[in-house]
Amino acid sequence: MVTEINFDGIVGPSHNYAGLSLGNLAATSHAGDASYPRAAALQGIAKMRHNMALGLPQGFFVPLPRPNPDYLPRLGATPETDPVLTAQSWSASSMWTANAATVSPAPDSADGRCHLTPANLVTMPHRAQEWPDTMRQLALAFADRTHFALHDPVPPTFGDEGAANHMRLCEGHGAPGVEVFVYGRSGGAFPARQHEQASRAVARLHGLDPARTVFVEQAPEAIAAGAFHNDVVSVANERVLFTHAEAFADQQGAYDAIRAKFPALEVVEVPSDAVSLGEAIKTYLFNAQLLTLPSGEMGLVVPTECTDSPAVSAWLDSMVASNGPIRRVLPVDVRQSMANGGGPACLRLRVVADPATVDPRFILSEAKADLLERTITANWPEQIDMADVGNPALAKDIVAARQALLEALDLSELG
Question: Is 161 a catalytic residue?
Fold first, then answer.
């Protein structure tokens, strides 16, 4: 049966706070802090368990090879000569699988297959190295070519950051939908990471009907405030668009453009006088998982930072009390990810498909979650200080930890 499956990235054993992501205020504000890879990975597993307990299918992706063995040699550098490049080679940012690819479900595509295009992530050097290994993993998980089509990334001239800048509206996940691509324009202190031409290329490659495709510009003010991806200020699910009032360059124009192709649109807009743009970005109110629960009602999986904020908590309470389309607020603790700039939505890639068509090694069960927890507890470093990044002994331990996970999951071909 076709349904939505959320694939979460397991936080890798090299998780650290190097502050590499310009424009990601959480990441840069925690630069130099000690990180806790084991706790981070276990928090991610707990979030996946939480969503499975709601009755939702859950998948996962494994960490990419880190330290990247090819990165420094190709640049003629060593840990001793260039600590910044070394930190990039250690980056565990692939855990944010919302940036792994853009996904168009089978009901939207011309050939009736689910299409995936890995993001080139060219804007940030620590992320631009990800796509070849991401593609290997996607090719394995979605190997059934009768149901899935996997494309090469968009050429790196055009920056593409994947599903974090893509939304889908539909009457039900298995029904034809309207796909919304959100792009940015350069200017201001921080770069716009999603290029309009990258979004248009993905739509063409996926065989989308122009009559059911919308392109919207993100507000430059939102990017300048730290909304480096659209999913920091907007999230959609079925008929509902949950968004901040300052998310788009032309807010009403965006609503009109979407509604012209999807008349059933329901907008839940958070006004600036209730939650400021800065507070929304600080708490990652919109970097939430907006989900259709088995009961048919919608739930919003938010980071606990939202319930810690008086303004955000009060607004969420009023939203639920208003009897609108979002009926439940479900807090989860992903503080280690949040401190590096990624909330619940960053950690997952949404794929609408029949779980039976996916390689079962990437589908989570309670028994497999137990296995992941045991393997992580036994192998992941408890703490990484920035002075440790580049340490050969720690690097060896990190490589061994990932290998132990691959062996436990029977995924050694990704080694």
Answer: yes
How far CA 67 is from CA of 156, 320, 349, in Å, comes to 23, 44, 23
DSSP lists the bridge partners of residue 291 as: 299
| Ramachandran sector of residue 410 (left: φ over 0; alpha: ψ -120 to 50; beta: rest) | left
Range of the domain at 182: 3-414
Pick the catalytic residue from 161, 246, 279, 305. 161
State the DSSP code for 29: H
SS3 99: helix
Domain count, the chain: 1
CA dihedral 401, 405, 410, 412 (to 10 degrees): -30
229 is catalytic: yes
What average pLDDT does range 194-204 have in this prediction? 97
- Cα–Cα distance measured from residue 367 to residue 365, given in angstroms and rounded to the nearest whole number: 5
Confidence of residue 1 (pLDDT cuts 50, 70, 90): confident
Give dist(CA 83, CA 39) in Å, integer.
Answer: 25
pTM tops 0.90: yes
Query: What is the crossing angle of helices 366-379 and 37-53, to 10°?
Result: 170
Please provide the size of the chain in residues: 415
Q: How many whole angstroms separate alpha carbon 336 and alpha carbon 305?
A: 12
306 noted as active-site residue: no
Residues 6 or more apart from 294 whose CB is under 8 A from it? 54, 55, 56
CA pair distance 127, 119, nearest whole angstrom:
10
Find the catalytic residue in 30, 115, 166, 229. Answer: 229
Query: What does the pLDDT look like over 297-350, one tens digit per residue?
Result: 999 999 999 999 999 999 999 999 998 999 999 999 999 999 988 999 999 999
Per-residue pLDDT at 26 exceeds 80: no
Give the CATH number, domain containing residue 74.
Answer: 3.75.10.20
In the chain, helix, strand, coil percent, each to 5? 40, 20, 40
Count how many Cα atoms sit within 13 Å of the Cα of residue 155 in the half-sphere of its side chain: 2
Burial class for 354, CB neighbours closer than 10 Å (0-12, 13-18, 19+): middle
Q: Which helix (H) or strand (E) holds 290?
A: strand 289-292
In angstroms, rounded to a whole number, what is the distance separating the alpha carbons of residues 248 and 264? 20
Pairing of strands 166-170, 177-183: antiparallel
